[in-house]
Every structure is written in C-alpha cells, then in structure tokens.
Amino acid sequence: MNTKTMEGLVGARTNMNLVNTPMRVFKEARRKGNTAAMERAMGYAAEFSDKAQEYKAEADKGMEEDAREAREKAKLQCEEAIRKRGEEQEKPEDRIDEGKVLLKDGIDSESTGHDEIKADAVREPVIYTKTGEVVVAEQEAGISVFV
Average pLDDT over the chain, rounded to whole? Predict the structure, then answer.
C-alpha cells in the first residue's frame, strides 16, 4: 500500500472522528439555546470535515498510483510470460530439426534399420524348459477338427 494512501485514510478517519466532539457541543448548545456556541461548534465541525475531505483526496491519489503500479507490474509479467513461451516454442522446433538430422544419419549409416527389426520379429517360436534352456518348438502343419 502506498504511503499516500495510508496517510490519507488515517487522516480522513481521524478528522471524521474529531467532528463528533464539536457536533456534541453543537447539540448541547442548541438545547440550551446558545447560538454563539452553536456557531463556534459548527465552525470547528466544518473545519474537521474539510480536512477529512482533503485527506480523502490524498488517499484517492495514492490508490490511483497503486493501481497504476499494479497495472505496470502485471503488464511486465505478461510480457515476460510471452517471451518465455516464445523461447519454449523455439526449442521444440530445434529439437525436431535435430531429430530429423539424426534420423537421416541413422538411416544412412549401417545401424539397425527397418529390415533388421522385421527380421527379428519373424523368428522361430521357442519354448523354455523349467531349467531355463531354450528348445525350438516344432510346428505341426496339420490341424484335425472333429464334429
């Protein structure tokens, strides 16, 4: 909170509380019919009320400054977030380009290609014994169905 705002709010509240005393004197003077005391009391009440209005204006200025600072801060944070998103979006494009180059180099060199992967997938079926030894399974070509 801005110091102008705090000072304005405290000053306005204090002066509004100070208005209560001359108003109490005014009411008592009116009851007694003392017009001179009534005029003095109203003068003091008006003075405190005017000071409260001045402090209110100061508090309003302070709140405007606070709002302006908050908007500027939000704007800077937004710009920073946009900048970071832009940087993050550039990184995947670089990675994609790098991946394409690596993929092209991998296919050109004699690394594992699609043919070798397919050859591995078409192996003969095996059976593992209780001891963990591999035994090649024999496939039977005929199927018998009884109805």
Answer: 83
| Summary count for the chain: helices (H), strands (E) | 3, 2
- 36-79 confidence digits (pLDDT tens): 999 999 999 999 999 999 999 999 999 999 999 999 999 999 99
pLDDT at 100 over 90: no
Beta strands in the chain (DSSP E): 126-128, 134-136
Tell me if 1 sits within 8 A of 21, measured CB to CB: no
d(CA 52, CA 9): 9
Rounded to two decimals, the pTM is 0.50
pLDDT at position 136 is 78
Contacts (Cβ under 8 Å, ≥6 apart) of 123: none
DSSP structure class, residue 126: E
Q: In this structure, are residues 4 and 59 in contact, taking their beta carbons and an 8 Å threshold?
A: yes
**Can you tell me whether residue 34 is helix, strand or coil?**
coil
Rounded to whole angstroms, how far apart are CA atoms 69 and 71?
A: 5
**CA geometry: angle at 10 spanning 6 and 15, to 5°?**
150
Cα 90–chain centre separation: 23
Residue 135 is encoded by which pair of tokens? 């035994």
